[in-house]
Predict the 3D structure of the following.
Amino acid sequence: MTLSHKQLFRANRALIDHLQPIEPALLAFEQRWIDRLVVRTQTPEQPATLVQWRRMFDALMAQDTAEESPSARYVAQSMTREQFKCLVQAFALDGLTEAQVFYHLMPRLSLEAQMPMLRMLLDEFGCGNLKRSHTTLYKALLSELGMPTDLESHIEATNEAGCAFANLFCWLAMRADDPSWFAGMITYFETLVPTAFGCYTALCERLEIQAHHYYSEHVHIDVFHAKEGQRLLKAMANGGELDCAKAWHGVCVGRAVIDQAFEQAVRQARAGSAHPEVADAR
């Protein structure tokens, strides 16, 4: 039987929604995927302290935000409305379930480390205002584009790289052997988004997309979330909970999965195919 990230995503949702255990074969598939990612993204230098981690992180972020990639430039300057629909669909699994899995991480952290995560969660869920929650903002975008807003429709349509992107957050929050993996990944992601989402906000302005708030809100709020990520790392270090090498693995693994999901989604959009053949994200 061929296993896939689409199957794993469904299993993750069944675990979250119904406490249905994930089959051992899928868990083994997931672990092989993570192990291969770690090997593929391993860097020669491994940080032993938070000071070293931050030095390496700052250098990586300077590299990743130095200039706009060709794909991001295409999104900002040339992508059509129909192509944009394909791109929006590619990340719908994350947009429609955004941050829900973060709750599973909270009991694994010290009380001090829970505080920056709690502040991030409050923002993700609109500070208790349903209309401002990030998932509601994504649904508004889908509606404006004439696309379905139910999760099942998008599970069917999403390629392997898009499913893998959503699955990574589940592994980090629920099954990684140390919360340090998550702390590294979330700090990278929140630091990257204010720059990376610039192509989306430029597209929305160019195409006069009214429901642009999912992207513009992230450009604004993730500046603060990047600081909370650093506070999370510091709190974990203060409590002796931070494994700097695993936090770095989280950065490197997350970076690879994010890049693959985005690049494949743009290629798919440019090819004009809403339902491509499944690509190997494993």
About this structure: Residues 78 and 203 are 8 Å apart (CA to CA). The chain has 14 helices and no strands.
